[in-house]
């Protein structure tokens, strides 16, 4: 029994360390592919309707977001409508880490073949 408890603790610690080492975009991509996002019961993920981000390229630069649920002035609102309508889940708190990670991933989406932004040179010591 002690061995099982020890293994469980090691797995939890390892998962926590691994998650902390991931970038917000990486955590957001996991959420984007999660069929249980928001406690959803549809068996779908964001990726179901937007495979590999299709239709979401450049979403971070917009000022108005339109989807079947209406028009929204924040990306977080538009995401929550998709979670509640398409995924049949519960809206995320717009200030939650999950929402921040999901937004980071969405903003990172680029059209296939799109040039990556030029990297600024490192300055300093």
CATH C-level label of the domain at 22-108:
Mainly Alpha
Number of strands: 2
Assign the CATH architecture of the domain at 22-108: Orthogonal Bundle
Strand portion: under 5%
Inertia-based shape = globular
Decide which structural class fits the backbone: mainly alpha
Largest sheet: 2 strands, antiparallel
Spatial order of the strands in the main sheet? Answer: 1-2
Explain the overall architecture.
The protein is mainly α and 125 residues long. It has a domain at 22-108: Orthogonal Bundle (Cytochrome Bc1 Complex, Chain D, domain 2). The chain is 45% helix and 5% strand. The chain has 5 helices and 2 strands, in the order H-H-H-E-E-H-H. It has helices at 2-21, 24-32, 46-49, 75-85, 97-108, and strands at 65-67, 70-72. A two-stranded antiparallel sheet has the order 1-2. Helix 2 packs across helix 5 (97-108). The mean pLDDT is 85.
Descriptors for this entry?
mainly alpha, globular, two-stranded antiparallel ribbon, 125 residues, Cytochrome Bc1 Complex, Chain D, domain 2
Describe the secondary structure blueprint for this structure.
Blueprint: H1 2-21, H2 24-32, H3 46-49, E1 65-67, E2 70-72, H4 75-85, H5 97-108
Antiparallel strand pairs: 1-2
Give the structure's gist in a few sentences.
The protein is mainly α and 125 residues long.
């Amino acid at each position: 029994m002690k061995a099982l408890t020890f293994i469980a603790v090691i797995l939890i610690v390892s998962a926590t360390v691994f998650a902390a080492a991931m970038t917000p975009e990486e955590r957001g991509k996991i959420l984007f592919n999660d069929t249980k996002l928001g406690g959803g019961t549809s068996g779908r993920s964001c990726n179901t309707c937007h495979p590999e981000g299709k239709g979401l390229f450049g979403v971070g630069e917009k000022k108005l977001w339109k989807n079947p649920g209406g028009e929204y002035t924040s990306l977080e609102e538009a995401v929550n409508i998709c979670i509640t309508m398409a995924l049949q889940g519960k809206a995320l708190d717009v200030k939650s880490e999950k929402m921040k990670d999901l937004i980071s991933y969405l903003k990172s989406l680029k059209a296939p073949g799109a040039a990556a932004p030029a990297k600024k040179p490192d300055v300093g010591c």
